[in-house]
Structures are given as C-alpha cells and as structure tokens.
Amino acid sequence: xxxxxxxxxxxxxxxxxxxxxxxxxxxxxxxxxxxxxxxxxxxxxxxxxxxxxxxxxxxxxxxxxxxxxxxxxxxxxxxxxxxxxxxxxxxxxxxxxxxxxxxxxxxxxxxxxxxxxxxxxxxxxxxxxxxxxxxxxxxxxxxxxxxxxxxxxxxxxxxxxxxxxxxxxxxxxxxxxxxxxxxxxxxxxxxxxxxxxxxxxxxxxxxxxxxxxxxxxxxxxxxxxxxxxxxxxxxxxxxxxxxxxxxxxxxxxxxxxxxxxxxxxxxxxxxxxxxxxxxxxxxxxxxxxxxxxxxxxxxxxxxxxxxxxxxxxxxxxxxxxxxxxxxxxxxxxxxxxxxxxxxxxxxxxxxxxxxxxxxxxxxxxxxxxxxxxxxxxxxxxxxxxxxxxxxxxxxxxxxxxxxxxxxxxxxxxxxxxxxxxxxxxxxxxxxxxxxxxxxxxxxxxxxxxxxxxxxxxxxxxxxxxxxxxxxxxxxxxxxxxxxxxxxxxxxxxxxxxxxxxxxxxxxxxxxxxxxxxxxxxxxxxxxxxxxxxxxxxxxxxxxxxxxxxxxxxxxxxxxxxxxxxxxxxxxxxxxxxxxxxxxxxxxxxxxxxxxxxxxxxxxxxxxxxxxxxxxxxxxxxxxxxxxxxxxxxxxxxxxxxxxxxxxxxxxxxxxxxxxxxxxxxxxxxxxxxxxxxxxxxxxxxxxxxxxxxxxxxxxxxxxxxxxxxxxxxxxxxxxxxxxxxxxxxxxxxxxxxxxxxxxxxxxxxxxxxxxxxxxxxxxxxxxxxxxxxxxxxxxxxxxxxxxxxxxxxxxxxxxxxxxxxxxxxxxxxxxxxxxxxxxxxxxxxxxxxxxxxxxxxxxxxxxxxxxxxxxxxxxxx
Length: 861
Ligand code: ATP
What we know:
Largest sheet: 8 strands, mixed
Bound molecules: adenosine-5'-triphosphate
Radius of gyration: 35 Å
Distance between the termini: 74 Å
CATH architecture of the largest domain: Distorted Sandwich
GO molecular function: ATP binding; ATP hydrolysis activity
Helix content: 40-55%
InterPro entries: ATPase_P-typ_cation-transptr_C, ATPase_P-typ_cation-transptr_N, ATPase_P-typ_cyto_dom_N, ATPase_P-typ_P_site, ATPase_P-typ_TM_dom_sf, ATPase_P-typ_transduc_dom_A_sf, ATPase_P-type_domA, Cation_transp_ATPase_P-type
CATH topology of the largest domain: Calcium-transporting ATPase, cytoplasmic transduction domain A
Keywords: ATP-binding, Cell membrane, Membrane, Nucleotide-binding, Translocase, Transmembrane, Transmembrane helix
Number of strands: 25
Strand content: 15-25%
CATH class of the largest domain: Mainly Beta
Pfam family, one: Cation_ATPase_N
Number of helices: 31
Oligomer: single chain
Main location: membrane
C-alpha cells in the first residue's frame, strides 16, 4: 500500500509504530539499521588535488618562473650557485603551499565546526511522552510534532493537521505555501498534500506526522546528492587581498624587468641581472598573506563564538565591522523576556474573578513537570492566576490564535455549562470591540467616560514600562459585543548588559532603531530606562502605513527613532529603505515571518531561541538572545579588520626594506646587500609568527570609539601605504644598508671595489643587512599592534602570542647568523656584537617615530 493512500491506522501499521510513538529501544535499533538522518555531503575535491592547487595559483606561477630563470642562468653560467637558488625557490613554493594549505584547512575546519554546532531539534513522541531530540537521531516510524517555524526533519506522512501549512521551496522551488491534510489521498508522493517533506518549513498551524524516510532516502536527500557541493564562499576581503597580491606580483615583475634593462645598460652581466630580477620578484610577492587573512577571519569567528555569537560565514565576520545601524526587537533582546504580572486593574473588584478566568483560560501556556512552558507573556499570566487564585476547569471548544497583525487571541470555552468567548490582547485592538463593561457585577453599556478611564490607567501602566494586556469576554459570538473586564500590566526587565552595550554603540556611531510589536508608551519608557533615547521620534503602525517611502526615508535620518506596533513585514520595509539610503543594516528576528528581513539585511541576526527558519536565514545566531552580544560581534568584526591591516602593513614594511637594497644595487655600483635566500628567510621565516600574532590581537577600546568604516574604504588606504612606503619601509631599509656598509667599511672596503660573493667580508656585510631589517621588524611588530594607541598604553606584554613570535624571530635570526648550518643555507657569516649594537638605534627610531605619530594624531572622541 502506498503511504499516501493509507489511513492513520494503516500508517501506524505500515511503519510499525503507534499513537504513543516508538519505544526508545526500538528507535535505537532503527538508528543502527537506517543510520543518522543526515544529508551526506556530495564529493568534495580530494585533499591531494586541493594541495596541488597551491602550486598553480598566480603567485606560485610567478615563483616557478623565477626558479626557471635561475636554472636557465645556471645553464648559461655554471658554477655561480644559481642552481641552488633555483632549488631554494622551489623549496619556497613548497613551504608556501604547505603553509597555505594548512591554514586554509584549519580555517575550513573551524567553519565546519561552527556549522555543526547548531543541531536542529525536533519534537517527537517516544514511549508515549513528548521530547526533543536532535534531528539527526530521527528514524522511520518516529511520531513527530510540527509547529510554526519548525523545519521538517524527514519525509513524513501527516496524521493530524491544524491548518498545518508548509513551504516546500527547498524541494520544489515553489515558494507558495501549501496547507496539508491528514486524509488519505490518491496522489503521487511528490505532489501529495498529506506528506511533509524534509527540508520544508512550517509556515503556520501545527500537526503531527509519522516519519517514513530519513537521510539520503528522503526526496531532498536524493536531489541533494545531485546538486549539493560544499563551497565556502570567498569573502569580499579575501577577494580584495587576492587582487592586491596579484597586483603586487605584477608590479614586482614589471620592476624586475625595468631594472633588468637598467642593469643591462649600465653594463652588468646577464646573470647578475637575472639574480636581480628574481630577487625583486621574491622580495615583493606577498607570499603568506592570503592564507593568513583567511585564518585570521576564522580565528575571529571562533572568538565571536566564545562571546556567544555563532557566525555562519566568514563574509559576515568582516561585514560586521561596517555596520552602521542595528534594528532590534525589544522583547527578549533588549529585555530578559522574563515577564511578571505587576499590576492588575478592573473597574471594580467584582470583575476580578472573571479577569483571572480569562487570563487562565485564554492561554496556551502549560504547567508540566513542575515547569511552566510556552510564550513568556502567557506563562506570566498562568503563573499569577495559579499562585493567587487557583486553577479553573473549563472545556475549550475552539481558538482564534494570536497573530501580530491582530495582536489579540480568543478562545471559546464552556464554563459551568455556558459557552463564552474569552479575548486578550493589545488595548487598541480589544477595547474597540467592547460595547459593555463589568461594573458592580453588572453589564453596563460602554461610554466615553469609562473608556477614558481605561485609557488613562493603561497609559500610566505603560509609562512605567509595563506591557499592558486588555481582557474581555462575550456571551454572544466570539469577539462581538464584548464586555470589558480589566487590564493587566506585565513587567519585563531590561537585560543588565544592555545599558553598556548601548553606550558603546553611541560611541562607535552605530545607530540603534527599536522596532517593536509593543505599544509606544511602553517602548518609550523602556528605551529611556536603558539610555537608548532621550527624546525620540516615535512612529506607530498607523502613521507608518500612511507614509510614502520618500517620507519615511526622510524620517529614517532621525537620530533617535522608535517604531511601534510593527509586524515583520514592516520590519522588512524599514530595512530595505535604510539600505536604499546607504546604511549597512543588522536586523534581529526570531519568527518565521522575520526571514525576509533577516535575508535582506547586511547582517541578519537570529535568536538562539528562535525558529529554525529564522536561524537558517541569518548570518549570526545569538546563543544568548542578548542585544549586548550583537555589539560584541561588531567590536570583534572591527578588530579583525584592523588586525588584518596591521599584519599587512607589517608584511609590506619588510618587503620595502627588502626591495631597497636591490634598487641600490641596480643604481649604484655596489655589491648586492641582501641575497635572495636572505629575503626568503624574512618572508617565510622571521616575519610569519609575529604577523599571525598581530592577526590575533584582541579588540582595543579604540575600535569602538570611531565611526564604522565606510564599505567603500579599501583595505590598503593611502595613509597606510604612504606610511609603509615612505616612513617605516625606508627606516628599515636604512637599518639594513647601514649594517651592510658599516661592516664593509670596518673591513677596509673602498667604494667601487668589487667583492667576491664567497668572501667572508661580503657574507658578514649581508648578514648585518639582514640583521638590521629583522631588528627593525621586531620594533615594527610592537608598533603595529595599534594604529593609534601607544604601546605603553596597550601594554608591552599584553599580546603573549606576539612575544612568543618575537622570541622565535630572534632565535631564528641567531640560528641564521651564528649556527654553521644557518650560515650554509643562507650564505651568512657570524658578525660581532658591535654590529648588532649599531643596528638597535634604527629599531628604536622606528618605534619612536610611530609613538610620536600616535601621540600627535590622537583620535577625535
Ligand atoms: P518585540 O517585537 O519588541 O519583540 P513583541 O514580539 O513582544 O515585541 P508581539 O509579540 O508582536 O511583540 O506583541 C505585540 C502585542 O500583542 C503585545 O504588545 C501585546 O499587546 C499583544 N500580545 C502579545 N502576546 C500576546 C498573547 N499571547 N495573547 C494576546 N495578545 C498578545
């Protein structure tokens, strides 16, 4: 029998299950037999191929070219050591590939781990009780419960539907929601309206279903097999770095060629020109840069996770730093979502019992296993009535559920044999339906005087920051001729961390716009309490809907803005218009209907407690639902971007210092001050760890004291380039050249005199040049820790990674200078202590110049 044509009883029989679900033991057995309910990733590119790819990208090709040049020149001029250089460059390509591959791999694993961090839970019935289990543990035969916002975990046959409406877009591409039924149908599986498919989401309503296919056996699994490939998207920043690297490499090649020609015209030999061209290329190509950037983004995402934000893409990590506006909900994000009944008001005391009945019966919260479960507003009401009045027993006939358009809910109950309909909701949607009020135990016709009184009381409750609900009932048709019963004010205290977070945003020039479903007065009171606003412009739903887009855009410029009585659709409109006026928007959301706004925003922020659909549409998931966490991620995002600039500036500075000796060599008749192997010892040796450590620098206070970066801003802006090319690089180059000539002169060398590359004096001179650059890079490591703060104020010892990196840097340099093996590999020779001593002042000057610059250009506050 086909699953679509079976009755509920037959479905149970077919799948060997029952009304009380599977037994746990049986479920375990089935899990072993059917395996996890997971979509397996289709084939990834094999690791070997991915490793090989590291040898064929643009930079690698340039280095291959350099190696070939070296071999050619060795062929033309044997015995000049060019063959060694050729091998060395191939070694570089290898080291580079391993390094890049390892970093990319590590970054990718970090991201994958983040993805796995968030298992989706499913409500199932097993052994007759309802529980939540991870979606991957679902097996055929499981009885699952589906409600609004859930993702369907596996292909299931519906056996109960209360307006259960799903969106099958992931499977069919058809985004029109379909309402499902539990009736047997004579339809093809894929078209059948009694099947909920894996991957679909529940848009509204609720129901129960029995799972009949899991994992790769689901319809989704079948198509996923065909189409899904796991691809980690390149972020705009990574693209920019790749572009920059290519540009620099092309530039290096060009310089190589130009100086080759210059060399040729001033009468240098062919192979001397070759070494030169190769040196320039190797000096300028930023070998380790791209993988370091990727890794530092990945490290950033892990740091955000420690601060309770799960970031789903690397793109989001960097986009966070440019956010200019946060649109946030109130309930649960700004506040704790711990509602408590604070004030109760009825026109007279006789209405109190009826008020309690409505609060208790027109309520879907539950008290099970000594715990309250459900919507926090309703839990608060239930708790209050249970603790103060006691339970009420009444049969519920039907329900018009709460929705944020109507902002009220109604149930029809039979109380003491009489049918009544009970309503609770926002005052402006309930009070207009009330034609009567309960006064002195009697039903009196509503009049302006009573209405005014009710409104006055409600306003005063709202002004205390309370959420006010209005209660009424009717003995007639539901929501007709209702009798006003009373008001209840609920308190939902703000989260304690929010105040500071808001202050940080204000300093960081990030605007916060509150978009709430709650009433204006409540929103204003709470916003003032937390220091969000002083004198805000409040736009309520009614006015909002009348405004044209142009008018609204004008209002969106306002500094202090609150939108009240909003629905998710309104939120989407606000986000869209903000983006149209050039803002970069982060928006929070938790419901199914928030998905479009979350997707539209630059950064969608879903609540950890929110629906699956919201989480899937968002870039960031707040594990603690806390507004302060968003601000923390912005801080991290900004810091990461700064860090990337820091190590790029650090890398480029030594590149300049490596290039200058070659230019000097080309222009003046001097021996080559720095060999190609020595350049490599910096680029792939001493520079690496300090650069990585700069990428891990913690956010300093300064990052949240300036406005967001413009998204048009380039990573390498003019200021940074000028500093590197005209100040820091030249100081380092001066250190290197000074070391070189200091040793030469001490050894009696005369200007113009030729030196054999094998002579001890020459080797010592190049060693001093290298040492000068490395010492200056040590100072540069400290100087680069912050673009604007003095090293003394951030603390010399506060980045342990950097200290370790610098210890390594110096140790490696000592190995290169004093250890015989180091001497052989890098053609160096031990230098006396005095050579170090004359070089140290250059490092000090570099640090001092940066300190003075930081002092004199202090940030505008
Ligand atoms: P925010 O958007 O800031 O998170 P919210 O999500 O609490 O606010 P909604 O849930 O849209 O806002 O609620 C809007 C209004 O609907 C509330 O102010 C209240 O008057 C009414 N309301 C909320 N929950 C219920 C409920 N369970 N039954 C009846 N009315 C409700």
